[in-house]
Amino acid sequence: MPTAELPTAELLAEKVAAARSLADEVLFPAALAVDRADAVPAGHLDRLADAGLYALAGPPEAGGLGSDPHAVAPVVEALAGGCLATAFVWAQHHGLVRMLTSEAGPELRARWLGPACRGEVRGGLALAGVLPGPPRLRAEPTADGAAWRIDGTSPWVTGWGRVDLLRVAARTADGRIANLAVDAVDQPGLTVTRQRLVAVDASATVTLGFDGVVVPADRLASIGPHDEAAYGINSLRLQGSLALGVAGRCCTLLGPSSFDDELVVGRKALDAALGDAMPVARAVASELALRAAAALVVSVGARSILLGEHAQRLAREALFTLVFGSREGIRRSLLERLARGA
């Protein structure tokens, strides 16, 4: 049966099975080597594309599951349990696909959505314009209306050198958000500074400085009110899945333990969380990853501090999930849980 004709449940099961197979057979065996690499192997991303996993946030006719984060979450969790760096780079792509699917006009959608869902064009995110406070990233139309000018800084842009097209969210002078599709290449006015990370460094995360970067007007996907919550609702759920993926791999390496039950509870909490409950559920997932990784380190013993051991890698990745994409509610909940020992 062609992908477009598969019922949603059957299509989801197919994608989850593919993700678990890739995680166990390709990503996890290479995870220690990737941990020390300068960038995620392009071949890993090719394998995800071949399995149709770049299409998940796209429409069913493109092999996608729509923008439902609960549908995509099991795939994110599986891949994160194989190699968090690879999963992290791949996960950014879906923000671009969601923009092309639900916000872009017919021309932009026709040009990019198909290639993006097939993984022929791979996406990254530069969303500094939606962060609270004064705008870090600004966009204004040029005087002749033929282009947009982008200025400012986007501090965390993942996958540089492995992504082709950025979803850039920048704030206009009247406080709206302009979403633009920008080529992820060296260009006039763009400064690229590599960030070195204690974990998932192979994600090739950079800071981008925009100084009058000019983007053609036909690259504008949408412009609308500044609504921080609209950008966080999907990301918080899926960031929780990254943490659960780390925790789940620790559980597998540990063998049967009480962490297995906590993993199930954490997954259900994320699925059920609405509103203010989501930051708490996200904090629970990250705290679980930290404790499970600590238990794995203790279980492995002294050799766990060797660079050739998965325990130390997973412990660093658990630390990463404590702070990646953090919000005040997540931070507050984590500090409370850590202070009282969960």
- Overall pLDDT confidence: 92
Question: What's the helix count?
Answer: 10
CATH-defined topology of the largest domain: Butyryl-Coa Dehydrogenase, subunit A, domain 1
Please name the CATH architecture of the largest domain: Orthogonal Bundle
Estimate the helix proportion, in percent.
40-55%
Strand order of the largest sheet: 1-4-5-8
Shape: globular
Which structural class best describes the helix and strand composition? alpha+beta
List unreliable stretches of 5+ residues.
1-5
**What letter string, H or E per element, gives the SSE order?**
HHHHHEEEEEEEEHHHHH
Q: Just give the CATH class of the largest domain.
A: Mainly Alpha
Look at the structure and name the CATH superfamily of the largest domain.
Acyl-CoA dehydrogenase/oxidase, N-terminal domain
Report, as a whole number of angstroms, the end-to-end distance: 47 Å
Question: Care to give the gist of this entry?
Answer:
With 342 residues, the protein is α+β, with helices and mostly antiparallel strands.
SSE layout:
Blueprint: H1 8-35, H2 42-50, H3 69-82, H4 84-102, H5 106-118, E1 123-126, E2 137-141, E3 147-157, E4 165-171, E5 177-183, E6 190-194, E7 206-216, E8 220-224, H6 228-254, H7 258-272, H8 277-300, H9 310-323, H10 328-340
Parallel strand pairs: 1-4
Antiparallel strand pairs: 2-3, 3-7, 4-5, 5-8, 6-7
